[in-house]
Design brief:
By secondary structure, the protein is mainly alpha-helical. The protein is 48% helix and 9% strand. 22% of the residues are buried.
């Protein structure tokens, strides 16, 4: 839940993605899909959440993954897609 940005929200969001990836990899999944966690009713700013999500996934796939080879983000609307797509070139 976004509480204004001073409650360690970015680290908590990164941890949520990382732990889900770790669990998926731990049961030998090769792919996993995520929504844009916390950017809806929990109010996490999309422009801050998108790079956290994609960066965490990218780092996991490049480092810790043993089975996972694919992470898909299933996004609700065009604005969310645009925010996530913008992180691809980063």
């Amino acid at each position: 839940i976004w509480r204004g940005g001073d409650q360690d929200e970015p680290a908590l969001l990164a941890s949520a993605y990382h732990e889900a990836l770790r669990l998926a990899d731990g049961v030998a999944l090769t792919s996993v899909a995520f929504p844009s966690i916390s950017t809806g009713v929990y109010g996490f700013p999309l422009d801050e959440a998108a790079p956290i999500a994609t960066g965490t996934a990218r780092a996991f796939l490049e480092g810790e993954a043993h089975h996972l080879t694919r992470v898909v983000f299933v996004l609700f609307d065009a604005a969310t897609f645009a925010a996530f797509a913008a992180t691809v070139s980063e």
